[in-house]
């Protein structure tokens, strides 16, 4: 009764199903499978017509799209016989542009009959892809600045802790501050201020190496982590940054950015103090710009002087205190380099 009932509802199922039975040789050993019944959905999806497969051995009916793509149903059924438990695999059909779940399970009326089913899971797979994409977007947004597409402060702090180890020494930190951002926002509009920040990000990326950590950490502030980079090599990167800024224009004005840097040479040095030194050096240079100290032919040389290597015990230059008190009053000097 169970058998007749199961076969009766086979055609009502939306999932493609085929009822098959184990065939044995004269020694009662497994040799093949035989199609007992298939439903309409099975015919529609596989293209195997009922009259062509019923009471035929599975090994002789292997010309479906799924077999051509390496999914040999007979192997699935053999594996089921050997393991004695249900089997599920996922398969993408290029011809049908669909994802399917292929499965084999035992039928209840006897152990010699097996249900082979084929379920279209394209919608399910698409939803999973969308969820994965959303998760990747949220992850990206949590560690990136939306305007410049650079890393944000949160990611920078994570990487600072990760890279502040002996094997990454010398570790250099560059502090960059965009000059005149407030003036630009107030007088030219925030959309021009955004362009200023985006151009700065492009310059930083173009002058740094793969593996360097570049982040926008504040409104007009950027930081760069340079693992395994000496003070001398950092100066070379700064030189490239200066030259690139001087040939980069926003609203017919060259990009003006103040830089400062410091290098952690030994493991016992505090990375927070290294960051403070980089920031102090940046403010020192910003003040030198304001006081019109820099000359066209010595700009990089003075940059190096302002960012000299300081020992941990050195006191910050007295000029730094004055810089902080000046705050937004500082106006950079735009100098064109030769």
TrEMBL record:
Coiled coil: none annotated. One of its GO terms (molecular function) is diguanylate cyclase activity. Residues 169-298 form the GGDEF domain. InterPro entries: Diguanylate_Cyclase (IPR050469), GGDEF_dom (IPR000160), Nucleotide_cyclase (IPR029787), Rev_trsase/Diguanyl_cyclase (IPR043128). NCBIfam families: GGDEF. This is Diguanylate cyclase (GGDEF)-like protein. It comes from Alkalibaculum bacchi.
């Amino acid at each position: 009764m169970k058998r007749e009932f199961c076969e009766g509802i086979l055609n009502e199922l939306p999932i493609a199903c085929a009822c098959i039975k184990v065939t044995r040789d004269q020694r009662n050993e497994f040799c093949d499978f035989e199609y007992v019944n298939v439903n309409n959905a099975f015919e529609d999806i596989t293209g195997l017509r009922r009259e062509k497969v019923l009471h035929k051995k599975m090994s002789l009916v292997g010309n479906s799209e799924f077999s051509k793509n390496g999914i040999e149903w007979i192997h699935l059924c053999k594996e089921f016989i050997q393991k004695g438990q249900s089997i599920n695999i996922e398969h993408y059909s290029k011809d049908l542009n669909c994802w399917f779940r292929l499965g084999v399970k035992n039928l209840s009326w006897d152990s010699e009959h097996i249900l082979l089913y084929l379920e279209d899971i394209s919608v399910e797979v698409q939803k999973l892809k969308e969820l994965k994409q959303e998760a990747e977007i949220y992850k990206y947004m949590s560690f990136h600045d939306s305007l410049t597409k650079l890393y944000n402060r949160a990611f920078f702090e994570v990487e600072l802790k990760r890279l502040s180890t002996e094997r990454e020494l010398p570790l250099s930190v560059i502090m960059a501050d965009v000059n005149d951002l407030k003036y630009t926002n107030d007088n030219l509009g925030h959309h021009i201020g955004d362009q200023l920040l985006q151009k700065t990000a492009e310059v930083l990326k173009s002058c740094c190496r793969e593996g360097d950590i570049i982040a926008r950490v504040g409104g007009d502030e950027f930081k760069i982590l340079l693992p395994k980079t000496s003070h001398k090599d950092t100066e070379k990167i700064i030189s490239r940054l200066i030259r690139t800024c001087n040939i980069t224009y926003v609203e017919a004005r060259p990009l003006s950015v103040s830089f400062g840097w410091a290098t952690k040479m030994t493991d016992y040095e505090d990375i927070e103090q290294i960051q403070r030194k980089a920031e102090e050096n940046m403010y020192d240079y910003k003040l030198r710009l304001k006081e019109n100290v820099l000359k066209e032919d010595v700009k990089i040389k003075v940059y190096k002087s302002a960012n000299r290597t300081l020992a941990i015990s050195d006191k910050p230059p007295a000029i730094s205190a004055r810089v902080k008190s000046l705050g937004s009053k500082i106006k950079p000097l735009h100098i064109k380099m030769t």
